[in-house]
Design brief:
Elements: H1 4-13, H2 15-41, H3 51-74, H4 88-94, H5 101-105, H6 112-140, H7 147-210, H8 214-233
Helix pairs in contact: 2-3, 2-7, 3-7, 6-7, 7-8
């Protein structure tokens, strides 16, 4: 039987599967950087005090994208096209979660509701990102090629999650509490379905690259569907709770630069 550690090790040891993994990660992070940059530029007057934090959020995401591309370059690889079925950000947008890219491309100020929706969506997706990076840090935090990058990105994702909690609590106190809870629930239920579909697509591509036997692919697919079943039943609740984080004002100050190790 295989473990999550051995599965990721197999993916990282093969250039083509590693290339796909880093390309998917880099693309998603770069997209998040662009989205946050546009949101920072379009904040309504009532939320202008958020501009430095939203800008920092976008800069961090952009940095993560450049780190994954640098990791590819370090191994002598170039990014590959991300399969449409594995494009997490695009699939979430198609579900109406987050702010539509058409809206972000216009030079029209966003509304206060838009900012509430942006933060609710981010609270859900940053929960997923934080958990994934904690897992990778547990398995590969001391890896000579990946360790320092994983540790840095994990710390950033924890900061992003703390920021979402703090700002949503502020907005709840300002009278948006019921709206926030509805948006969190809708976002969480949509995200867990998209995450299932993207996970199945990624594992399908990895299986073909690594020539996994049909039985192994079937077990992995069953595991992904079992996680979804748990999340649909009860696990999604962890994505909608709000509590004051230990890391207060987590996105104050400028983003750090891409480190030399990448």
């Amino acid at each position: 039987m295989f473990s999550a550690r051995s599965l990721f090790q197999e993916i990282f040891d093969n250039d083509e599967s590693y290339r796909l993994f880093c390309s998917i990660a880099a693309s998603g992070e770069a997209q998040g950087g662009w989205e946050n940059g546009r949101i920072a530029a379009l904040l309504p007057p009532s939320q202008r005090e958020l501009a430095p934090k939203v800008t920092r959020h976008g800069a961090d995401e952009d940095k993560h994208g450049r780190i994954f591309n640098a990791l590819l370059h370090k191994r002598g690889l170039t990014p590959t096209e991300v399969p449409e079925a594995a494009d997490y950000t695009m699939l979430l947008e198609r579900q109406g979660i987050g702010l539509a890219h058409d809206k972000l491309r216009r030079d029209e100020p966003l509304t206060e509701y838009d900012i509430v929706a942006y933060l609710a969506h981010s609270r859900v997706t940053e929960q997923r990102a934080s958990e994934q990076m904690v897992m990778l840090k547990t398995y590969f935090g001391d890896h000579p090629e990946l360790g320092k990058a994983v540790q840095m990105i994990s710390s950033d994702e924890d900061n992003h999650l703390a920021y979402c909690h703090e700002e949503l609590l502020r907005l709840a106190r300002a009278g948006h509490g019921r709206t926030i809870q509805g948006l969190l629930r809708d976002s969480a239920l949509a995200e867990i379905a998209v995450y299932r579909d993207v996970s199945l697509a990624v594992m399908d591509h990895m299986g073909r690259i690594l020539k996994w036997p049909a039985a192994k692919s079937a077990v992995l697919a069953a595991g992904i569907r079992a996680v979804y079943a748990y999340e649909r039943l009860a696990g999604w609740h962890r994505m909608v709770s709000l509590r004051m984080p230990e890391r207060r004002d987590a996105l104050s100050g400028p983003a750090t630069s891409v480190p030399e190790f990448a």
